[in-house]
Amino acid sequence: MSKFLYSTITSKGQITVPKEVREALALRAGDLVEFQQRPDGAFVLVPRQSDIRALKGVVPPPAQPVSLSDMDAAVAAGARERSRR
């Protein structure tokens, strides 16, 4: 994409990302974008991809394995507790 694309900032500080940019970045409604500042002061718009694999390692593994029956019992206990509220 070698042409210049423009967008106007609204009174609420919002902009519409031009269609050609949305298509090039594969952006859809509800997607997050990140504004990264380069060393020269310019900003770059970067799509934040929501890949489930990015969550790997976020939650540490339990100290000891939990069985499916233990998980089922915990879910049932939580449901009972919620129904009492």
Describe the 3D structure.
With 85 residues, the protein is α+β, with helices and mostly antiparallel strands. The chain is 27% helix and 14% strand. It has helices at 19-24, 68-84, and strands at 32-37, 43-48. It has a two-stranded antiparallel ribbon with strand order 1-2. It is elongated.
Strand adjacency order, main sheet = 1-2
Structural class: alpha+beta
Q: Note the gap between the termini.
A: 57 Å
User: What Rg, in angstroms, do the CA atoms define?
Assistant: 22 Å
Strand portion? 5-15%
Largest sheet: number of strands, sense, barrel closure:
2 strands, antiparallel
Instruction: Note the overall shape.
Output: elongated
Helix content: 25-40%
Tally of DSSP β-strands: 2
Helix and strand element order: HEEH
Low-confidence stretches: none
Average the pLDDT over all residues and give the rounded result.
Answer: 89
Number of helices: 2
